[in-house]
Amino acid sequence: MRTSFLNSITALSAALVLSACIDNDFDAPDYVALPNGATVTVSDIYDMHAKKQASFVITDTAYLYATVIGDESSGNLYKQLYVQDETGGINLQLEASAANVRIGDYVKIVLNGLSVSKYNELMQLGGIDPAYDIIVQRNECYIEPEVVTIKQLNNSDFAYTCKLVRLENVQFAASDTAGTYADGYAQTSKNLTLTDSLGNEVIVRNSGYANFANKKVIGGRGNAIFIVSRYSSTVQLLIRNVNELELTGARFVSGQEKDAVFSQTFDSNFGSFTTFSVSGEQTWAISYSTATMTGYANSTNYDNEDWLISPEIDLTNETAAGFSMSYIARYFSDINSDITLQVSTDYKAGKSPTNATWTTVQATWTEGSDWNTFATTNLDISAYAGKKITVAIKYISTSKKAGTLEIKSISITNKVESNTTPGNNTSAGTFEAPLSVSDAATATGTKWVKAYIVGVYETKDASGATLEKYAMSTKAPFYTATNLLIAASATETDLSKCLTVQLPTGDIRAALNLVDNASNLGKEVMIYGSLEKYFNMPGVKSLTGYWLDGNGIKPDNGGGTNNGNTNAIFAEAFDKSQGQFVIHDVDKGELSYVWIFDKKYTCMKASAYYNSKQNESDSWLVSPAITLGSGTNKLSFQQAANYVAQPKDALHVMISTDFDGDVASADWTELNDDISTWPTGSDFKFVTSTADLSAFAGKTIYVAFQYTSTDSEAATWEIKDFKIE
C-alpha cells in the first residue's frame, strides 16, 4: 500500500506562498518537500480516487496544504470544513468540532490514516481529528471567490465542487422569500431556489442548526458568495455567512413569477391563509415547515372537518387560471373524498365556511409513500377567470380512518399547467407507456420518455474549451459527452422541438454519449429521469435508466432495481425504501404502524407484536399499477415469516384489476394457493416464492401483500426482491 500510494503521486506540488497572510508566529512550513513525507494537492487526491475507483485509507506519511473556505462558525456546517488549494477543493469530515479553525486559515493536513471516499458523489477526506490532523500555519489567507454564473455551475460537470464562488445579479425565488432559510425550531434543513434573470436555477441548502435558520429570506437582487457542494447529480450551494448575501437591489421578474397571481408557502406560519374547524378537536398546525392537518392523535382516529382558507384572490384581469399545490398525503381511506379543493365567490373573510357557497373542483390527489417526497397537483380553474375568488382545502377524517396532509405551498397562476401529480395516470411515463417529447416537455416527475437521438447541445469545442455560446450540433464529430438532444423525429434540427438530456457519470453516459458512440445518432431511445429544465429548456436530468437497441438499465418507478434482470416488467428490491408501494391500514388498533421498511435487513416488514403482546390488525402493502404483457407473466419475491403456525392462512398475496386507492372497495383475487413456496413460519429464513400470472395477461394489475393478525397470533412477515417478468 505504501509503494502504490507514493507511486500514484506523479509530481510533488509546490504550495502557494500567500503574501496577504498575517504571520501569527507559526513556524513557516516546508512548502516544497518534507523530510518524512510527500506534499500532495487536492487534485492528486481526486486522481488517486479515480484510479482506485473505490474508497481507500491513506497509509503513507503525506500532507495537504490548503486554505479553509468553509467552517462551523455559522452552524450551517457541522463537523465539516471545506478547503481549497490552487488545484481544487475538498470536503473534510471531522471526528470532533474544529472550533479553532476559521475561514481564511492556511492549514497543513496530516493525511496518514485518513480515508478518501465519495458521499453521494461529494469527495471527502474522513476520519480527521482536528487536534492532531489539522495544523494552522497562518491566518487571514482569504481566497478570492471565482465569479461564475448559475448556467456555468449547472453545465460544468461539477468542476466547481468544493470551491468558493461569487454569483452576480441573482435572487431567491419569490415563493422562498416569504419564509425562512430553514427551520431552526424543528432543526430541519431546507432547500431554497436561487435564480438569475435568464431563468437558470440552482439549489441553496441550509441547515436547521444554522444561526440564520429562522431569519427571513432576503428578498432583493444582487451578488452573493457561496461554497459549491453537490448531492448526487444535483449542485447545491452553501451559505457561509448571510452577510455575504448582498441581495438588496430591486427584484427582476422571470419564469413562474411572471405567471403568479398569488402564492403562499407554509414554512413558519399560515401567511395570509386562515383556518377553521367545523368539527373535531384536531386542527391545522404548522409542522415540518408545512401546513399540517391530521385527525389521528394518541393512537386514535377522530372525526374532523377542517378548512385551510385563502384570502380573496383577484382574477378579474385574467383570462385563464391554474391552481397548484405541493403536498404529502398519507394514510387516507378515500383520499379524493377526504381532501377536496373548494372555490367560493361569496365567502366572507373570518366567517365559517358553512355560511358561503362552495364548489368542489375535481382533483386526483396522490397517496405518498414517505415523509420526504412532495407531490404536486395542478388544476385548471379557468372557470373563475375574471372573478374574485377564495380557495380552500377541506379535510375530512373519521373515527375509522384519519389521514395526514402536509401542504408545502399553494399558488394561483394565470397559466394552466399540466397536472403533474404522480399517479394521476399510472400508465403514462412507465416503461410500457413512455411519454412523448411533447408530453414530457410540459410534465414533471420521474418518467420514461421515448424519442430519437438527434444530436448534442455543444458546450465545448474540439480542444475541450468551453464555448462562449452553446449550440445545437446534429453531425459528427461531437465534443460534449455530458448531454444529448432528443426529439420526436430522427431528423429534427429545430432546437425548440428537442429535449435536453443530462447524462450522468457512469454506465448511462458511456452507452449513450455521441462523442464515443456517434452511431447512436438517429436511433430511437427510451430514458428514465427527472423531467425538469436543463440549459433553461425542457429537459431530462438525474437519469437512472435507459433502453437502446434492446438493452439498457431498467429501474422501476419506485427507485428499486430489476436485480440485473432486464426482462423484468416491474421490480422492487426493497433494498433502499418501500419504493412506489403504498401502505393501506384497514385496522391497526393502537399500533403506530404495521408495515415498515426495515433498513437494517433491507426488506419490507409487517408485525403487530407491540408492547409485549399480540395485536389485531389488517394492513396492506400495495404495488403501483403494473401493466402485464400479452404472454406468460410470472410473479416472484422472497419472503420470510416467523411466530405464525400457518403462514398461508394469516398472510395473503392478492391481485386486483380495479383498485383505485381503497382496498375495501376493490375486487381482489387471492393467490395463496398458487404460490409455489411458503416459509415455515418458525424462523427468518427467506424462501423464493413464485406464481403464474398468465390469467391476467394484458391487464393492468395491483399486487398486494395483506397482513392479518389476532390478539393470540401476530406474525412477523418480511418481503424483498419483488419482480414480475
Question: How would you describe this structure to a colleague?
Answer:
This protein has 725 residues and is mainly β. Helix content is 7%, strand content 42%. It contains 9 helices and 51 strands. Strands 1, 2, 3, 4, 5, 6, 7, 8 and 9 form a 9-stranded mixed sheet that branches. Strands 17, 19, 20, 25, 28 and 30 form a 6-stranded antiparallel sheet that branches. The longest helix is centred in the N-terminal third of the chain and has 11 residues, at 42-52. Mean pLDDT is 85; it is low at 1-20, 22-35, 419-427 and 556-566.
Question: Which helices and strands appear, and what pairs or packs with what?
Answer:
Blueprint: H1 2-7, E1 38-40, H2 42-52, E2 56-57, E3 62-70, E4 80-85, E5 88-94, E6 106-110, E7 115-119, E8 122-128, H3 130-133, E9 134-138, E10 146-148, H4 150-155, E11 164-172, E12 190-196, E13 201-206, E14 221-231, E15 234-238, E16 245-249, H5 256-259, E17 260-265, E18 274-279, E19 285-287, E20 290-294, E21 296-297, E22 300-301, E23 304-309, E24 313-314, E25 322-330, H6 335-338, E26 339-344, E27 359-361, E28 375-380, E29 388-397, E30 404-413, H7 437-442, E31 445-460, E32 466-473, E33 483-487, E34 499-502, H8 507-512, E35 524-534, E36 537-548, E37 551-553, E38 570-572, E39 582-587, E40 595-598, E41 603-607, E42 609-610, E43 613-614, E44 617-622, E45 626-627, E46 634-642, H9 647-650, E47 651-656, E48 669-670, E49 687-692, E50 700-709, E51 716-724
Parallel strand pairs: 1-3, 5-8, 10-11, 13-15, 34-36
Antiparallel strand pairs: 2-7, 3-4, 3-6, 4-5, 6-9, 7-8, 11-12, 11-14, 12-13, 14-15, 14-16, 17-30, 18-23, 19-20, 20-30, 21-22, 23-29, 24-29, 25-28, 25-30, 26-27, 26-29, 31-32, 31-33, 31-35, 33-34, 35-36, 36-37, 38-51, 39-44, 40-41, 41-51, 42-43, 44-50, 45-50, 46-49, 46-51, 47-48, 47-50
